[in-house]
Amino acid sequence: MQSSLSIIIPVLNEEAVLPTLLERLRKERNKSISEVIVADIGSNDRTIEITHTYDFVPLISSKFADFFRHLLWVLTRF
Description:
The chain is α/β, with parallel strands linked by helices. Helix content is 33%, strand content 23%. The model has no long low-confidence stretch (mean pLDDT 86).
């Protein structure tokens, strides 16, 4: 039985590292990773724009300033 993994990536202004991370995850998709979700907490750089260039990555945005409150909000969406 093949295992599947869903990855939720909480982000805030991560334009510098996000492309590298998403490219690595793209290569692992369908092997052990079933889905990758970017959860933005209010980025004001190119994080959202970069995320939209990866068609396999849904973006969830919230305006919670508290990281843990944001994470709980994201988890209740699934």
